[in-house]
Here is the input.
Amino acid sequence: MEIVKGLALLVIGFALLVKGADVFVDGASGLAKLLGVPPLVVGLTVVAMGTSAPEAAVSISSGLKDATGIAIGNVLGSNLMNVLVILGLTAVIVEVPIQTSTFKIEIPFTIGITVLLLVLGLPDGRLSRFDAGILVACFIVYLIYTVVLGLKEGSDEEPEDPKPLWMLAAFLVLGAACIVFGSNFVVDGATGVARVFGVSERVIGLTIVALGTSLPELVTSVTAATRKEADIAIGNIVGSNIFNILFVLGLAGVLNPIPFEEGFLLDGILATAAVVLLWIACIRTRSLRRIWGAIMLLFYVMYLANLLFM
Here is the structure.
């Protein structure tokens, strides 16, 4: 019965997280447009934070419930899945172009902050409040950069008919509620499954929880690819990975210091290597071609096999 309960909580939790994030983004982006915020700024900040909301909710909730292995495992696992699986699958469907600013600034920045996470967490075996504060400070710098970039580039997009304020507020409240309840269900379900199978919270966080919290990015990227709008995929995924490390782990660590297991060294190195591979794949053509997408998917299968069976 314990396994049935755990799996049921996971399914219900993931459903609430995905729908909650979708509704929250609709409300937040609609409110931003109503206030006259440029659409590009909305995309770089509000939407990116919305797709990272499941990771944030689960990591913060797991940290407060002392299921700390899920907190970091969720972020590193989601970042690996974002690059190797989501971008890999998207590239297999259609070649994915990359913007110059993403190639020159955001991808190297992602590599740097992933290494920074390891440097902060490994020496004393935990992510302290001071360490988390450094991540939050980097997040603020990144947020300022994205807003300045958005204001500089502007947009020719025609504004849509705005929804009424009461409806946008209702979307925000309903989305936030779904995210909070969903994160609690996911953490409770994941820890229950881990106990039944004798699997560590680290492995559960890197696999099941990472998959569930990455669903918004997966659906968004694959849908964009099938609609021939894949040019937004790399920027959105890289932005999501940045938010996951700086915002999600930063906020979770400030609220409650997070133990950093030695096993996360390998996961962190692989998360860094995945982004380096993405950068290398785009050097010549400034795009992610199908062959590189297939290579990324193969690498993730090998990583998953090693994680589960070694």
